[in-house]
Amino acid sequence: MPLEIVAKDSVTIKAIKTALEAESLFVKPIIKEDSYRIIRTSIDEPKELISMFPGVEFREYQLAPSRNGLPVNGRDILSFHREYFSQYVKDSQIVEEELLNYLPTKYSIYPPMLLFNNSEKKSLLHEKVHKFFSNYNIDRTQYYSHLLNDFAPFKELTIIAINKPILVEDTLRQPHNLKLLYRDDGQPLDEFDDIWCQVAQNEIIQVWNPMYTMFSRGNIKEKKRVLDTFQDVEANDVVDLYCGIGYFTFSYLKLGCRNLFGFELNPWSVKGLWKGFDANDGFIPKTDNKGSVSRYRGDKEQYCHIYNENNEMSDQRLQEFRNQSTSGELLKIRHINLGLLPSSQQGWPVALRLLGSHNNWDVCSLSTLHIHENVSIEEINDGSFVKQTITKLEILGATRYQFNSTHLEKIKTFAPDVWHICLDVDVTLAATD
Ligand SMILES: C[S@@+](CC[C@H](N)C(=O)[O-])C[C@H]1O[C@@H](n2cnc3c(N)ncnc32)[C@H](O)[C@@H]1O
């Protein structure tokens, strides 16, 4: 099956299109999907695509014939709806005004789930949609089945759900507002413990249960930056204080870190992370069959230790690890990831405590904190965010450390004029007289 590239950044899109055109591999048109652009190619060999565009997100596509004989337009949901409902109501203006104005046009494909956006104005559950279905005797189950089988028939989709924003105040980031509307696999709608979605980003597969764990596509850029920038990870140790389903954990493991210590409160995220190990069979460490404590990659000394508990326990857990596995020897903590929004400040003193108790500064003289926060554009542009962060770290570290901010990455917008950023801060021991 031919492959299509999912891209966001306009410079990348242009470069990909130009490169494809030069080889006569570009398939018109470029399709808009949420804030992404889908660039179709006539390449059907993943290796060929990866060698041309290393690290891009891609997937298969196919314009398959539909079961009911209606023409299918792979990803254009509006055309699909126009065509589908024209068999019930011939007057296209009525369909447009009484139905299409209220149906969602944005969705994500997270196999096996087709996830629609949901707002007050556009929803599969909008009262106007209910009214239209009942006025024209349209069977909702049949419609859902066609959506799964004819609209996106190449994706092995069996579930339709609708999405609402994640509540900021929910520490575990569980998408309580996700609602299942239809299952084509014979399972009841109130059974969802068996649903595991998968998406590949930067050639790393992420696995999660969408009812219990969030997935944010927009972090792809930051994961790529980690993969491209931090080769110094190899043979060093990394702590991921909010490891979730492994957005960054897998990137650090792929870079060859020696020990990865991950902390996560949500048991469902941890389950997804373990499933991710199986899905990424090949370059991610394999299980040592000793349960959920550590996994290793055969030929290399590489271990991953996941603790399904508050990161406040990390100091104690690293001490236990050192006592049991290294006869008390200190670690080489080269990176500490702090990926919690809207703020990771809870983890800052935890991170400094870990460096103070467990890092061997003689062999690992520099450790980098990756601080994720939501920050207003004013505070980014006038430098006050960086300044205040360094001041806060200096207070926490007393006079022991020197902090040097090296990079601020704007990852994605969180709200108008508010950015999800990652600030890299290098920590070294302060000079003593
Ligand atoms: C933004 S999500 C992290 C996303 C993550 N990088 C991933 O791959 O899913 C933040 C995660 O931190 C977890 N969390 C929040 N506070 C925590 C704490 N004090 N200790 C450990 N985990 C925590 C939440 O359960 C949530 O899964």
TrEMBL record:
SUPFAM superfamilies per the UniProt record, alphabetical: S-adenosyl-L-methionine-dependent methyltransferases (SSF53335)
Residue ranges of domain SAM-dependent methyltransferase TRM5/TYW2-type in the record: 151-429
Main location: cytoplasm
Alphabetical keyword list: Cytoplasm, Methyltransferase, S-adenosyl-L-methionine, Transferase, tRNA processing
Any single Gene Ontology cellular-component annotation: cytoplasm
ATP-binding among keywords: no
Statement: the UniProt record of this protein carries the keyword Membrane: no
Catalysed reaction, written as an equation: 4-demethylwyosine(37) in tRNA(Phe) + S-adenosyl-L-methionine = 4-demethyl-7-[(3S)-3-amino-3-carboxypropyl]wyosine(37) in tRNA(Phe) + S-methyl-5'-thioadenosine + H(+)
GO molecular function, one term: S-adenosylmethionine-dependent methyltransferase activity
InterPro entries per UniProt: MeTrfase_TRM5/TYW2, SAM-dependent_MTases_sf, TRM5-TYW2-like_MTfase, tRNA_wybutosine_synth_prot_2
GO terms under biological process: tRNA methylation; wybutosine biosynthetic process
Subcellular location: Cytoplasm
Pathway: tRNA modification; wybutosine-tRNA(Phe) biosynthesis
Top-level lineage group: Eukaryota
Family assignment from sequence similarity: Belongs to the class I-like SAM-binding methyltransferase superfamily. TRM5/TYW2 family.
Described function: S-adenosyl-L-methionine-dependent transferase that acts as a component of the wybutosine biosynthesis pathway. Wybutosine is a hyper modified guanosine with a tricyclic base found at the 3'-position adjacent to the anticodon of eukaryotic phenylalanine tRNA.
Descriptive protein name: tRNA wybutosine-synthesizing protein 2
Organism in which the protein naturally occurs: Maudiozyma barnettii
